[in-house]
Amino acid sequence: MRIDKTAVASDARIVEFNRLLDAPNFIRAIRDSGYVSLASAIAELIDNAIQADASVIDISVARDSSHALPTITVEDDGIGMDQHELGACLQFGGSSRFDSRRSIGRYGMGLPTASLSQARRVEVTTWQPASPTRTVSLDVDEIVSGEPALCVRETGDRGASMSGCRVTWIGCDRIEYRRLAWLDRALHRDLGQMFRRFLTTVTIVRINGKTVLPIDPLMLNTDVDGASAQLAFDPLQYEIDTGRGGTGVVTIRFSMLPVAEWHALDNATKRRIGVVGHGGVSILRAGREIARGWHLMGLKRKENYDDWWRCEIEFDPDLDEHFGITVNKQGVRPSVKLREALEPDLESIARLLNSRVRQAFEQVKFEAAVQRSCLIAAAADADLPVIRTSGRAQGALAYRFAARPLAGESMFELTLVQRLLDVTLNSDHAGFAALYRPLHDMGEAGAPLRTSLELLLLSFARSAITIGMSQSERRDLVQAWGATYGRMLQRV
Ligand SMILES: Nc1ncnc2c1ncn2[C@@H]1O[C@H](COP(=O)(O)OP(=O)(O)OP(=O)(O)O)[C@@H](O)[C@H]1O
Ligand SMILES: [Mg+2]
Fold this sequence. Notes:
CATH topology of the largest domain: Heat Shock Protein 90
Radius of gyration: 33 Å
Largest sheet: 8 strands, mixed
Number of domains: 4
Shape: elongated
Strand order of the largest sheet: 5-4-3-6-2-1-7-8
Mean pLDDT: 90
CATH architecture of the largest domain: 2-Layer Sandwich
Bound molecules: adenosine-5'-triphosphate, magnesium ion
Number of strands: 17
């Protein structure tokens, strides 16, 4: 209906409102509201169901023969809506919790906007005990052709639960997956990560009957070959002024992946379990992930090593202004104040964890390189005079060669525990920088020389034990040798 401007001039608000919205154009434009994926649009419906205290949320994606385009249904067993709430739920700005900061929903935009971003028509059906099942719908083509919108009608098809809500997207013309199986996999992956906090407690989400499993980018519960990631520190907490007379809390956790145990996994496994492609920061608002990527790390740029540690930043909706939340709850735009409060710490922790990962990889490389010498020494041991040790195990000794900073002037330390002869190079000794590191850094080209040097040290250690030197005599000799060698090297 067109309103004659002069006839309603006394009610300026009506005139203004009609000027504000051109319904057919608005409805077409809002379809491009910028949901980055089907998962982030469906996430709006899961948000609503969680907030309605649903314990089971069933998503079905189907392409039936009569519809070339898929139909998506999200049904929950939450508290449902009364007639008034149902009438408002597809209004832009229609909300039973406008600007609330207690939980996820806030704007009254999620349901209609996310729905139209994917489908040409959305129907919302709800049921509660002792009241009829009712449905309201919004249809792009009907609005464009000027038909009335948002009429609530009574319908028969209520769900199996006492109360609940079903949202149906008909004519999903924005879905890019050619195969529903790919779409199914992507939904499990994305929704599993976005709702990980809820999926471990009270809520079950199913896609075509299959339960969505929580995916934790910190990988604290991912057990592969008996190892999983560990928290790098106790969680950090920051209390931030909301700017509205209160404070909100930001909680930050870091984890380190087990480099030694997982570095050799094949690429397909690394991708499958999420070692590659999931690095960086995951940001949770009210427990739901709204952003992932490289955020709040100051001047530190992301490098490959940074895939091996993870960061999770969690905040209350009270701090929405600081995180620069957008209506479709995807992504963050941190305020200057928030960046000043967090970035210096996060940047230095990022650099620290990057160097821990680098060291862990160096250690892995080192161990792989010295394994050859240890195997040669063990093979030769059978030809050497037998060494008797206490305990039952006899036969050839096993050898281990390592490097790390040691206190004192020794170039290395040697110990015999059970039947394992352990030689640890002092990486702080001048001899390490002068002799060992250059050979090590030459890689394959330096390998024969490095093996000879390692065998020189292993054979020295073996001989000290063969001739029966006590532990303290060995220590004195090694210390005197290391100090002497160090002093000589100073004059080179
Ligand atoms: N599954 C549901 N169960 C019960 N009520 C619902 C459900 N989904 C939507 N609603 C009602 O519809 C309203 C509109 O939902 P919508 O997602 O558009 O906005 P919101 O959740 O209030 O805010 P936001 O835009 O931040 O998501 C909600 O405020 C709620 O009253
Ligand atoms: Mg919502």
